[in-house]
Amino acid sequence: MQFIDQAEIEVQAGSGGDGMVAFRREKYVPAGGPAGGNGGAGGSIYLKAVENLQTLLDFRYARIFKAKDGQRGGPKNMTGASADDLYIEVPCGTVVYEIETDEIIGDLVTPGQTLLVAQGGKGGLGNRHFLSNRNRAPENALPGLPGEERAIRLELKLLAEVGIIGLPNAGKSTLISALSAARPKIADYPFTTLIPNLGVVRKPTGDGTVFADIPGLIEGAHLGSGLGHDFLRHIERTRLLLHLIDVTAEDPIAAYETIQGELEAYDRGLPDRPQIIGINKIDALPPDSTLPHELAEELHQRSGCPVFIVSAVSGSGLEDMLQTVWDMLDEIKAAEAIEVEEPRIETEFVCQEL
Length: 354
Prior knowledge:
Blueprint: E1 6-12, E2 45-50, E3 64-66, E4 86-91, E5 94-98, E6 104-108, E7 114-118, E8 149-156, E9 162-165, H1 172-179, E10 197-202, E11 208-213, H2 228-231, E12 240-246, H3 252-266, E13 275-280, H4 291-303, E14 307-309, H5 318-340
Parallel strand pairs: 1-3, 2-4, 9-11, 9-12, 12-13, 13-14
Antiparallel strand pairs: 1-8, 2-7, 5-6, 5-8, 10-11
């Protein structure tokens, strides 16, 4: 399955049906009067977030979506049938932009959430509407209004609580395969992962947390270098970043600084996102090597973040690191709950004697 996280489409809502000019002509009714009905409304277009889609691949082949027009008004004051609204399914986490202004129209996060992107046109009025004391036999009706047309851009930002970041070949794919049922491609060369991979990691309580393996970032990613420019956006929705560092790299400290520099350059709140650092691939070092501990101490001093010495291959240190992940996520969620709670306003009432 190809992972497509951006798409541009055109949406055309249906036009309203025209109003009708008609008169009531029946036996024994000499003054039947106007009886032209109103036109029906055109169909509107909505985007709907669903859980069973993971990419925007479908929009590579279908780019124009048009709702049906409303029906024309009928005789005997019959209103034309309104067209059905058109619902376009998109993955949860889709952000919708107006191409012309580059403004955000909406953000679809919750399954079942809908967003109106093109309003259907109203139906025209039939001649019955124009009846008055001055005009007892109106012969005019109004046409239906055209439906709204829009060019919009869809951007998918993965919904994951934990984002696994690091330079290429840091062991991110191996880690997510060790923690979850995800089976990404793994090989001993950079840029093995070309698309983000999602995996559900089970907590001791039994519920799951979504981890995202973000493809390897490199220096200059925020400017479009490598794969990072396309996938930095997927880190925006994460609550916690798990930064993996290859202990066998030529300069692990420089690797850490490179990723931090890219997060700061991209900004959008990423530099302030809580992080856990994992020094990975200790299975490739001699058992008596002191390098991991020296790196852990220096990285902790530089970042102030929890640092763990782990091996995604052997599983060493993963349990302690995961426990810290759960604890930090609980703290983050508790803080978010306090922020969204509406402030309580104390009002003092003073009674005065008149």
